[in-house]
Design brief:
The structure is a single chain. This protein has 123 residues and is α+β, with helices and mostly antiparallel strands. The chain has helices spanning 14-25, 70-79, and strands at residues 7-11, 31-33, 36-40, 46-51, 61-66, 88-89, 92-95, 98-101, 104-110, 116-121. It contains two helices and ten strands. 18% of the residues lie in helices and 39% in strands. The radius of gyration is 15 Å and the shape is globular. This is VOC family protein. InterPro entries: Glyas_Bleomycin-R_OHBP_Dase (IPR029068), Glyas_Fos-R_dOase_dom (IPR004360), VOC_core (IPR037523).
Length: 123
């Protein structure tokens, strides 16, 4: 049966994406193949970034990072140049980049390729 899933993100400029994830999140690829970067996190999960002209066209969350230290990680990310988005939609309003839904906190940012990435902590 299905045992694991990971995100696959598009990049119009793979080198720029690699620099973003290195400089902003201190991630380096575990593997590099032609046109593809593979990242592995300490939890055993991971994600891929591949080069395509379709990058930046999705207007939805494409990947979430889960954390148990939301405020600390958000501050660290801001210190590394990440800008969090603000939203005011029916059912979702952020304050200083943070949405609180029950006991869950979430915040969204875009990577260098325009992909929407979420940071979230369940309460």
């Amino acid at each position: 049966m299905l045992t694991e899933a990971h995100a696959v993100l598009p990049a119009s400029d793979l080198k720029r994406a690699q620099e973003f994830y290195h400089n902003s999140l201190e991630f380096d690829p575990a593997e590099e193949e032609e046109g593809n970067l593979i990242y592995r996190l300490s939890s055993g999960t991971g994600f891929e970034i591949y080069e395509t002209s379709n990058a930046g066209t999705a207007q939805n969350t494409q990947m979430c990072f889960l954390t148990d230290s939301f405020e600390t990680d958000m501050a660290w990310m801001r210190d590394h140049g990440i800008t969090f988005e603000d939203y005011d939609f029916p059912g979702l309003k952020t304050e200083n980049g943070v949405a609180t839904i029950g006991d869950t906190h979430a915040a969204w940012f875009r990577d260098s390729e325009g992909n929407y990435i979420c940071l979230t902590e369940a309460g």
